Amino acid sequence: MQIPDHARDVVERLERYGYEAYVVGGCVRDSLLGREPKDWDVCTSALPEEVLRVFRRFHVIKTGLQHGTLTVMSEHRPVEVTTFRTDGSYSDGRHPDSVSFVPRIEEDLARRDFTINAMAYNPARGLIDLYGGQDDLRAGLIRCVGEPDARFHEDGLRLLRALRFAARYGFAPERETGYALRRNRHLLEHISAERIFSELRGILEGRDALSMLLGFPELFTAVIPELEPCIGAPQNSPYHCYDVWTHSAHAVQAAPADIILRLTLLLHDIAKPACRSTDAAGIDHFHGHPEQGAQLAERILRRLKSDNDTRRDVVTLIREHDRALPQDLPAMRRLIGKLGLLNTQRLLEVQRADLAAHAPEHRESWAADLRRAQALLAEVQDEPPAFSVGDLAIGGRELLQMGLAPGPGIRRLLEQLLREVQDEQLTNSPEALCTRARQLLTTPQA
Ligand code: ATP
Ligand code: MG
């Protein structure tokens, strides 16, 4: 196993001082998977004061001193060093009431959540794998260390962590762990919104979000009860081959692994069950579901304490998700003026993913519209921008100098000029705009 120098130095220094030390947890797991670990964590028999002494010449941050965790800056990179510990009881279902430091690594590994996260490695002593973590890595299984029900009761966040690791690596929860996940969904009630949102994000961004959404819908409805009516909700329409939940899950998977896109697709049809009507021919319609869905998503994302930017973009994209895409350049320029370039690009991604989760025989004409919109978007990005009045070569100041009275008339005139530029009837230069402005002022138009 390759350990980078900055982490190896921390392990070796602790050992030189007579303590035991290992790299542990996620970095061992990711190395064995051949993936680059995000960060390197070390566990040690040294007590926190002893760790401080060993690294007294280093910059050390007292990250979680009560829990035995210090961050040592080694070659300018942070390494978390945690004293071997066991966790006391968990009366709040999230935080251990107390931790106790223990002398042996075996006890420390026993407190860790999943077998693939419970391995430690020391360059001299090799891999410590007491729970079959390597076998589970090979088999692609997420398995609790110890008795799943008990482990989930200690800390309900582990339910979502299980799905996050499974989604990230394309693994499956092992059978008993899987049953316990479903049985214990109520434990998510005790978890803070911030933590739920952060795990949800990890699940949705995973490479196999689909299997988690289809396999464990009850965990998603436990954190977003508004999704409940979507599960099994029929869509009697030639365009659809799935119920609302299955459609949404496939749409999530078809989107790039970006949280804004994937949250949008998770929630885009959330108001369909509430908006459903069936016509005389037995075909379902869902009038108004984008707007109602946007309002629901706004409430959900506020409750989950999503950051504001993510919430705003997701709500906008849900509101717009069913919009007919521009099929000519002026319409594309105006859409970018309304949504901004980034959200226009995202809207195309959202529709591509939505389309991929529709009945195959009805995709072609929509796909053609999407391709055309994509080409128009590329073309518009190649020209000087003319998306909003701010892109015009003149502004309110020039119009005032022309003698126009201050007031809303200025804005209206600029918007008229913008429309003509977007329609390619007018060049976006100061001279052309001023000439046209004078003309419009002397011969007012309807
Ligand atoms: P990531 O790549 O997402 O950082 P990670 O495995 O490093 O994955 P962390 O949350 O950074 O996850 O935690 C580091 C290690 O601490 C885990 O590998 C696991 O051994 C242990 N751990 C973390 N959270 C828990 C928990 N809630 N319950 C039990 N053990 C945990
Ligand atoms: Mg980590």
List the helices and strands and how they pair.
Elements: H1 5-16, E1 21-24, H2 26-32, E2 41-44, H3 48-54, E3 60-64, E4 69-74, E5 77-83, E6 85-87, E7 99-101, H4 105-110, E8 120-122, E9 126-128, H5 133-139, E10 141-142, H6 148-154, H7 157-169, E11 172-173, H8 175-183, H9 193-204, H10 209-215, H11 217-223, H12 244-254, H13 259-267, H14 272-275, E12 277-278, E13 284-285, H15 289-303, H16 308-320, H17 329-339, H18 341-356, H19 364-381, H20 396-401, H21 408-422, H22 430-442
Parallel strand pairs: 2-5, 10-11
Antiparallel strand pairs: 1-2, 1-8, 3-4, 4-5, 6-7, 8-9, 12-13
Helix pairs in contact: 7-9, 7-10, 10-12, 12-13, 12-18, 13-16, 13-18, 15-16, 16-18, 17-18, 18-19
**Major sheet: arrangement of strands:** 3-4-5-2-1-8-9
State the end-to-end CA separation. Answer: 75 Å
Please count the helical segments.
22
Helix content: 40-55%
CATH fold description of the domain at 5-139: Beta Polymerase, domain 2
Helix/strand structural class: alpha+beta
CATH superfamily of the domain at 5-139: Beta Polymerase, domain 2
| Percent in strands | 5-15%
Residue-averaged pLDDT: 95
Indicate the overall shape: globular
Major sheet: size, sense and barrel closure? 7 strands, mixed
Low-confidence stretches: none
CATH class of the domain at 5-139: Alpha Beta
Instruction: Tell me which ligands are bound.
Output: adenosine-5'-triphosphate, magnesium ion
**Global Rg:** 28 Å
This entry's quaternary arrangement is single chain
Number of E-type strands: 13
